[in-house]
Amino acid sequence: MPAYYADEALLPPGWARKVRIEVDARGEISAVASDSSPEGALRLAGPVLPGMANLHSHAFQRAMAGLAEVRAADADDFWTWRELMYRFVLRLSPEQAQAVALHLYVEMLRHGYTAVAEFHYVHNDPDGNPYASRAEMSLRHLAAAREAGIAITLLPSLYAWSNFGGQALQPRQRRFATDPAAVLEILEAVRKAAAGDRDVRLGVAPHSLRAVDTAILDELVAGLMAIDPAAPIHIHAAEQTKEVADCIAWSGKRPVEWLLSRMPVNERWCVVHATHMTKEETVALAKSGAVVGLCPSTEANLGDGIFALQDYRAAGGRYGIGGDCHVSRNPAEELRLLETVQRLVSRRRNLVVRAGSPAVGTTLWLEAAAGGGQALGRNMGAIEAGMRADLVVLEDAHPDLAARTADAIANALVFSGGENFVRDVMVGGKWVVKEGRHAQQDVAAHRYRRVLGELASAEGDFPE
Q1: 58, 120, 141, 273: which is the annotated catalytic residue?
Q2: Which residues touch 225 (CB under 8 Å, ≥6 apart)?
Q3: Residue ranges of the alpha helices (H) in 90-194?
Q4: What mean pLDDT do residues 171-190 have?
Q5: In whole angstroms, how large is the CA radius of gyration of the chain?
Q6: Per annotation, catalytic residue among 304, 324, 390, 407
Q7: Burial status of residue 403 (CB atoms within 10 A of its CB: 0-12, 13-18, 19 or more)
Q8: Is 324 a catalytic residue?
Q9: How far is residue 95's CA from residue 72's CA, in Å, rounded to a whole number?
Q10: Could you confirm whether 442 is annotated as catalytic?
């Protein structure tokens, strides 16, 4: 069994010194010991943290980053941004989607993400017709993840309606149209394509309560249960105040309130955003065991609002972080923003800490890594026996890490604002980033630049 030695490593209880990590042939950690000898082990080049899960990705939106920052209305908000996204996605081919995803996944790895949940809802061709293979677009993301070497949880999305009450999809939503049978067909095709691949996990993503109805949501969950009772289920909820108001008009309940009263929400569920909840909903969601998927850079970019993290954590809630529209691909940036907006609301500092550690950076990384692993349905997010060997080795020579040890390492990573902290990255026992470089990064960047040129020339500059 390979063995690795780190002068310092972030273990579940906190930072430890002289840590030996043994990895088995399946790519899982078989043993971890501190105060060990480096004899017979490969010495790692810097401090080591558990790999981070990116629990919410719409990969194609990476190609939109920076393109929607021109005011399109007197009052720009999430809903005007969504109209631009609809226009953008109509141009995207399967080949282009794969190239964008590959570049994105390489970027994620180079910053310390080792797994991604791809919440994928672009299923049909630009005319709204299913591809010859229902799973065409999902398989493109699988191929991109395999080429990049990132673990992936594929979540084909159920998207049947344009709003609460079963309102028909609008023409610009035609690429998203699915029913439960189609989603389950996609799952089966991907399952066959990924047979035996330990880096691939499957689940489903009912897009939102406005995009499904009670009957088809029940059908989807029942179908998934028959395939894999432990498979993850992700859903957008309570991201926008308009969504909350529309849900109340439809059902008499708020989105999270409705989910908790009507669906078997438990540890396999991930409720994405959950921005606008009452205190009662916040506590109830925390008690359910579900993970909240927080996407701080996207929620800020779209003007969504601020999640009540302090109340949620006080109730025992679990959370992870996601890149969503990918205006950031760096977990440290997401964690910094997550804490920073809480400070703005409360007008206090150093809020996200845990018993036994007053260090915010350490707490954020450990909690988000553990919650993200749960949301992806993976044994990841901690350096301990039985977990996947997903390791992030920091650059010991980085100026911002000079003379830093233990909690000061994680605090510098999250709060110094520095770049190029990550030196090496292991995914499931395999090194995919070495000395700050990914073997495919130049190829991926070249393909990505070509796609941006193709998309820009398809119908003129974007946005119009």
Answers
A1: 273
A2: none
A3: 94-111, 136-148, 180-193
A4: 97
A5: 21
A6: 324
A7: exposed
A8: yes
A9: 29
A10: no
Catalogue all structural domains in the chain, each as residue range(s) with its CATH number: 3-44 (2.30.40.10), 51-378 (3.20.20.140)
Sign of the torsion formed by the C-alpha atoms of 39, 40, 45 and 46: negative
Of 413, 414, 370, 288, nearest to 115 by C-alpha is 370
pLDDT for residue 387: 98
Burial status of residue 461 (CB atoms within 10 A of its CB: 0-12, 13-18, 19 or more): exposed
Model confidence band, residue 463 (pLDDT cutoffs 50, 70, 90): very low
**Are the beta carbons of 400 and 362 closer than 8 angstroms?**
no
Extract the tokens encoding 354.
Answer: 């845990």
Tens of pLDDT, residue by residue over 312-366, are: 999 999 999 999 999 999 999 999 999 999 999 999 999 999 988 899 999 999 9
pLDDT of 458: 63
pTM: 0.97
Question: What was the pLDDT predicted at 53?
Answer: 98
Task: Pick the closest to residue 339 from 383, 306, 377 (CA basis).
Answer: 306
Can you tell me the distance from the alpha carbon of 251 to that of 331, in angstroms, rounded to the nearest whole number? 36
Which amino acid, one-letter code, is at 397? A
- Interatomic CA distance for residues 439 and 95, integer angstroms: 21
Whether the link from the prior residue into 463 is cis, omega within 30° of 0, is: yes
